[in-house]
Amino acid sequence: MRILIASSEAVPFAKTGGLADVATGLAKALAAEGHDVCLVIPCHRKFISEDQRGEVIGELNMDMRNFDLRTYICRTTLENSNVEVLLIDQQSFFDRKGLYGSGNSDYPDNAERFILFSRAVIEVAKTVSRPHVIHANDWQTGILPAMVHHERTQGRLAGTGSVLTIHNMAFHGQFPAWQMELTGLPWEYFNWQQLEYYGHLNLLKGGIAVADIVTTVSPTYAREICRPEYGYGLDPLLLKRGDSLVGILNGVDTEVWNPVTDKHLTHHFCADTFETGKPLCKASLQEELGLDVRRDALLFGMVSRLTDQKGLDLISAKADEILRADVQLAFLGTGDPHYENALRDLQARYPGRVSATIGFDEGLAHRIEAGSDAYLMPSRFEPCGLNQQYSLIYGAMPLVHSVGGLEDSVIDASEENIESGIATGIKFTSYHPDAFLEAVWRMVGLYVHRRNVWNQIARTGMSQDLSWNHSAQRYVEVYCRAIDAARS
Ligand code: ADP
């Protein structure tokens, strides 16, 4: 099958979050199955070196409100795979310090930037890659299914299926109605059942309404977003999609996230050597972060965007109480200045016990997973979540709020689950500081008093197959359904 995946970010080129890992991991897994995969991303020049861009293979002249939008297509391949990567190089839009904005504010021309990108994807599909299916991701490429639909009505891209994956319902890509002009689509698409949302242009809504199949990144999140608490106003539309809305849990790129081979680590370990390897990684991490090098202190790690979504309000509310126990906390993240300052403050008040690295550091993210005993992910909502899966693989027992992909990927250490050998972490159900704290005490209790059980739980997590193998197969099924729908 010829598959075009369009994403606004992808490792190793540019990354702000899980989407970048997923775009590349899925593309590689599909290519390994023998499919012909083309990954199309914007050429974020501040992050992508000239070497990484590969060769220029074409030029597009996009007519968007009289701007000079000369746009180049560069071609390269993903390392160790047959995935072709096409980079849409439009300097005035993508030569920026951020991917979507600076600090806490979005770039004011994000509609122009990502509609141009989506239009370029359609040109690439028509002229270069001729895919059977076009896979859009999140609001940035949410307009693609409507564009594919329009092309089909014009006799172009005939039979090409469209799939939209929602990685986070919280971001819609909503813009003033007049920006509809940028899309090149007829105004008929601007109606309440397609691209219009209360008088605005809503790119994610358009994708949900028009895509042949809509997917999201875990089965539980697929059910949650059909309810008002998680649907951000689009729950009725999602409900209407019925069985055309499919939840597929993200896999992990085990070439990148693997404690046996991880290039960011000085010591390596597997499930069998966990008890000797983890302490070595822990000591190196404590040293690197200026924490007291103490084997017995329970070290919690967290690598995250620092936003309300990620449960930082719970952590802020209970950190002082948690630190009454013999624990250490290692944070890595950027985001809301309020949370950045709260973590810096904790570090200042607990020298040697709390470390707060404010920034983006891929290598340190890996070392935190390898060196931590446990991992905090008390997200308010979590479409899939990758870090709890990385934690399972690295033997850092995850503590999670049981929502979305966290619910689907962690099995609580209840006595029953411990007994039957399936437990992999600790879960709490009510999003409340006290419920969170109780989960922390359960974890501390296990670590301090039942270390054999702790080690068994960690080894169970490490032994799971969390790779893309299974999920990539599910995507192939979805692509087949989308192609059938496009042909009917
Ligand atoms: P989300 O996509 O909501 O941000 P995920 O858990 O799905 O959350 O994915 C987050 C990805 O981004 C993980 O690979 C994580 O390691 C990475 N990440 C987040 N913040 C940082 C950071 N400050 N430094 C390095 N990696 C980070």
Defining traits:
488 residues; alpha/beta; Rossmann fold; nine-stranded mixed β-sheet; 40% helix; binds adenosine-5'-diphosphate
Descriptive account of the structure:
With 488 residues, the chain is of the alpha/beta class. It has two domains: 2-251 and 469-487, 3-Layer(aba) Sandwich (Rossmann fold), CATH 3.40.50.2000; 274-462, 3-Layer(aba) Sandwich (Rossmann fold). Helices cover 40% and strands 20% of the residues. It contains 20 helices and 20 strands. The protein has helices at 18-32, 50-53, 91-94, 110-129, 144-153, 180-183, 203-210, 219-224, 228-231, 235-240, 274-289, 312-322, 337-349, 362-371, 387-393, 404-409, 415-419, 433-449, 451-462, 469-487, and strands spanning 2-6, 36-42, 55-62, 69-77, 84-89, 101-102, 105-106, 133-137, 161-166, 174-175, 196-197, 200-202, 213-216, 245-247, 298-306, 327-335, 354-358, 374-377, 397-401, 426-428. The strands form four sheets. Strands 3-4-5-2-1-8-9-13-14 form a nine-stranded mixed beta sheet, sandwiched between helices. Strand 3 and strand 4 (69-77) form a beta hairpin. Helix 5 (144-153) packs across helix 7, helix 11 packs across helix 14 (362-371) and helix 12 (312-322) packs across helix 18 (433-449). The longest helix has 20 residues, at 110-129. The chain is globular and about 70 Å long. The chain starts with a strand and ends with a helix. The site of adenosine-5'-diphosphate (ADP) has 17 residues, from helix 1, strand 15, strand 16 and helix 14.
